[in-house]
Amino acid sequence: MKRSHWSIPYVVFLTIFVVLPLVLVLVYAFQDGSGHFTFANITKFFTDSDALSTFAVSIEVAIENTLICILLGYPAAWILANKDLNRSAVTIILFIMPMWINALMRTLATAELFNMLGITLGKGTLLFGMVYDYLPFMIYPIYNVLNKMDKSYSEAAQDLGAKPWEVFWKVTVPLSMPGVSSGILMVFMPTVSTFAISEFLTNNKIKLFGTIIQENINSSMWNYGAALALIMLVIIGISTLFTDERKEVEGGLI
CB-hemisphere CA count at 13 Å for 216? Predict the structure, then answer.
């Protein structure tokens, strides 16, 4: 048996569970209820004020969540990667442990905690839940880059008379940008497309883009729901390409 034959099960799996669903989304997005080809579903999004406003809110929440995750995640990743400040692997495990629990269960537990404390559900609770769920996805890409970073760069800067804060801002931060870019991608796009967190932590007062996709699918409006999903996939694809190009540029500069 050729070595390439071992890839057949993976090809079959990807075809059934990845390629086929994407093809179905594409087909439904460009069909009307009668199965005829149309661009109406795509153009409807750009004339649907509710969908556009929901998309704008989703982008706003995603930007805020991403910025908070960077502000909290970068220092945490730097501490975890610093051997002088973190001498135990237990600390790293503590950050991993929440990811072992189902995200929906964590969200429900967070909502119940707010209810017990009498905190009104709204944008604040939504951002808290978003940060709680997605912060590890910001920490670990940055941590991996910082942990593997060649320490000789920092030592060379110190030998040339750079102060600790100068070493951090002029050496550590620029070299860690690939990890930051990965973290931004892993936090920003899921935030835009999620629906469960906003539903449970705001009592559906704040709808995100994933919510209107879910509502259309649940209402049997498959074609418009597929069009919205396709628009989201295109945005994710463009963001991924932009991030990859940035990594290549930064890698070349480094």
Answer: 20
> Measured between alpha carbons, how far is 176 from 69 in angstroms, rounded to an integer?
15
Q: How far apart are CA 145 and CA 42, in angstroms?
A: 40
Give me the amino acid identity at 215. Answer: E
What pTM, to 2 d.p., does this model score?
Answer: 0.83
In this prediction, residue 6 has a pLDDT band, given cuts at 50, 70 and 90, of confident
CATH number, position 241: 1.10.3720.10
Give the residue with greater pLDDT, 193 vs 45.
45
Largest interatomic CA distance in the chain: 72
C-alpha–C-alpha distance, residues 112 and 89, integer Å:
31
Q: Which has more confidence, 212 or 151?
A: 212
Query: Which strand (E) or helix (H) includes residue 34?
Result: none
Distance (Å, rounded) from C-alpha 146 to C-alpha 74?
A: 10
Residue type, 192: V
What size, in residues, is the chain? 254
Structure tokens that stand for 87 in this block: 């001498």
**Is residue 84 within 8 Å of residue 146, measured between CB atoms?**
no
Number of domains the chain contains: 1
Q: Does residue 36 sit within a domain? A: no
2 in helix, strand or coil? coil
Tens of pLDDT, residues 202-236: 988 888 998 899 889 888 899 999 999 999 888 87
Q: Report the distance separating Cα 147 and Cα 78, nearest Å.
A: 9
Burial of 2 (0-12, 13-18, 19+ CB in 10 A): exposed
Q: Which domain range does residue 99 map to?
A: 49-253
